[in-house]
C-alpha cells in the first residue's frame, strides 16, 4: 500500500503540473540553455514501482537524465563504478541496507559522489543520523516534488540542501537544548576557525570565505579539515550540525536551507 501511494504521488505530480520553476535561471539552467548536457541521475530504492515513478517525474523537468536505477546498495556500487552519475537519489530503504548505511558504503568508495537522501522518518535522531552519513541533500519522502528537485539542483551545483520540514524539526530541537550544551565542542576552535565556521554556516563557499577574509582558498580548506578533526565529524554536514547547535547559524528556515554550501 505504501509503495503504491509513493508512486501515485509521483505520477500525480507529473500529470497535474505541480512543478514550479523560478522566473530567473539558476547556473544549472543557464548551462543547459547554452547547450550543455543534462545532468545525470542514479535512482536507488527498494521498490521498482517507486523508481519508475521517479524516472517519469524526472523526464518532465528537462534538467536531468536518469542513466540507471537499482534496488540494492551492492548493485549501486557496481553501477556507479561503471557509469558515474552527477547525483544519486538514495531511498530510505534498499533491499539489502537502509539509505543511511548505503550512503556511507557508497561514499567510502566514492567520496566525491553527491547524494540526495530521502528520509522515511522526520524525528530528530533520524535526521542527525542521516546528516552524518555524508549525503549532501536531505528530503523527507512525504515532501513535495518541488523540494526534491530543489535539492537535486542544489546538490548538482555542489551545494547542500535541507528540506524546510527537516529544518523545522532541528530548530525546535536546538531551541530546547540548554545554552551550555549548544556550544559544546566549539570552544576547542580558534577565533579564526570559528569565523570560518560561521561563514560556512551562512552558505559561503570556500572561495567566497577566502576573498572575504583575505586568505588563500587552500588555507580555508585546511581550516575545514582541522575543524572536522577537532570536532570529530567526517564531513561538512557534520560541521553544519555543530554550527547549528552552537548558535552560529541563524535559526530560520531560509538560512538553514542555504547552509552547507561548499
Q: Which structural class do you get from the secondary structure elements?
A: alpha/beta
Distance between the termini: 39 Å
Mean pLDDT reading: 76
Low-confidence segments? 1-5, 14-23, 179-183, 250-262
**What's the CATH C level of the largest domain?**
Alpha Beta
* Biggest β-sheet description: 6 strands, parallel
Q: Tell me, briefly, the overall form.
A: globular
- Count all strands and give the number: 6
CATH-derived architecture of the largest domain = 3-Layer(aba) Sandwich
Query: How many structural domains?
Result: 2
Which strand-content bin applies to the residues?
5-15%
Q: Predict the CATH topology of the largest domain.
A: Rossmann fold
Q: Within the largest sheet, what's the order of strands?
A: 2-1-3-4-5-6
Q: CATH homologous superfamily of the largest domain - what is it?
A: Response regulator
Number of helices: 14
Notable traits:
262 residues, alpha/beta, Rossmann fold, Arc Repressor Mutant, subunit A, 2 domains, six-stranded parallel β-sheet, 54% helix, globular, disordered N terminus, disordered C terminus
Please provide a written account of the structure.
By secondary structure, the protein is an alpha/beta fold. It folds into 2 domains: 2-163, Rossmann fold (3-Layer(aba) Sandwich); 177-258, Arc Repressor Mutant, subunit A (Orthogonal Bundle), CATH 1.10.10.10. Helices cover 54% and strands 11% of the residues. The protein is built from 14 helices and 6 strands. It has a 6-stranded parallel β-sheet with strand order 2-1-3-4-5-6, with helices on both faces. The longest helix is centred in the N-terminal third of the chain and has 15 residues, at 2-16.
Amino acid at each position: 500500500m505504501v509503495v503504491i501511494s509513493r508512486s501515485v504521488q509521483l505520477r500525480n505530480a507529473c500529470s497535474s503540473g505541480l512543478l514550479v520553476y523560478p522566473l530567473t535561471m539558476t547556473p544549472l539552467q543557464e548551462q543547459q540553455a547554452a547547450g550543455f548536457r543534462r545532468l545525470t541521475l542514479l535512482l536507488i530504492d527498494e521498490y521498482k514501482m517507486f523508481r519508475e515513478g521517479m524516472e517519469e517525474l524526472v523526464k518532465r523537468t528537462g534538467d536531468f537524465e536518469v542513466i540507471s536505477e537499482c534496488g540494492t546498495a551492492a548493485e549501486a556500487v557496481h553501477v556507479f563504478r561503471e557509469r558515474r552519475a552527477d547525483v544519486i537519489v538514495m531511498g530510505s530503504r534498499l533491499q539489502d541496507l537502509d539509505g543511511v548505511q548505503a550512503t556511507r558504503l557508497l561514499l567510502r568508495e566514492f567520496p566525491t559522489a553527491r547524494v540526495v537522501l530521502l528520509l522515511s522518518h522526520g524525528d530528530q535522531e533520524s535526521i542527525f543520523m542521516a546528516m552524518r552519513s555524508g549525503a549532501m541533500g536531505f528530503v523527507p519522502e512525504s515532501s513535495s516534488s518541488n523540494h526534491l528537485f530543489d535539492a537535486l539542483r542544489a546538490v548538482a551545483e555542489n551545494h547542500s540542501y535541507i528540506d524546510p520540514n527537516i529544518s523545522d524539526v532541528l530548530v525546535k530541537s536546538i531551541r530546547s537544548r540548554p545554552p551550555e550544551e549548544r556550544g559544546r565542542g566549539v570552544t576547542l576552535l580558534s577565533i579564526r576557525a570559528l569565523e570560518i565556521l560561521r561563514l560556512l554556516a551562512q552558505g559561503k563557499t570556500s572561495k567566497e570565505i577566502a576573498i572575504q577574509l583575505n586568505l588563500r582558498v587552500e588555507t580555508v580548506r585546511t581550516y575545514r579539515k582541522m575543524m572536522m578533526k577537532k570536532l570529530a565529524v567526517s564531513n561538512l554536514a557534520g560541521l553544519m550540525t555543530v554550527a547549528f547547535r552552537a548558535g552560529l547559524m541563524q535559526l530560520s528556515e531560509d538560512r538553514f536551507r542555504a547552509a552547507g554550501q561548499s
